Amino acid sequence: LFIVALLIWKIIVPAIQKAEGANCNNELRQIDGAKEQVAKALGLKDGDIVTEAQISPYLRGNTMPVCPSGGKYTIGRIGGKPICSLANSNAPREKDYYHNYKPYGD
After folding, report:
1. Where in the chain does DSSP place strands (E)?
2. What is the pLDDT of residues 82-95, one digit of tens each?
3. N or C: less crowded end of the chain, CB within 10 Å?
């Protein structure tokens, strides 16, 4: 029974982590898209600071998304990518958005 539980744990936990990482990456993409819309609407340039209040109207539900793993999002400046506090340099990257999760088998 212990071996079955261990096998299930080895399969389910990485799958959950991968799904949370994918959701986090999607949230980061939405934040980045909202930043681009705000920059265009307000005439902001690379390096300008953007606030949560400025991008919220361009996000689903007019609210800042929440990382599914409990991380905190940093919006970043115009021209830079938003990041999640759970991101690390060793995590897989997809178009510069990344979240600290290990794909199954790693």
Report:
1. 73-74, 83-84, 93-94, 97-98
2. 988 877 544 444 44
3. N
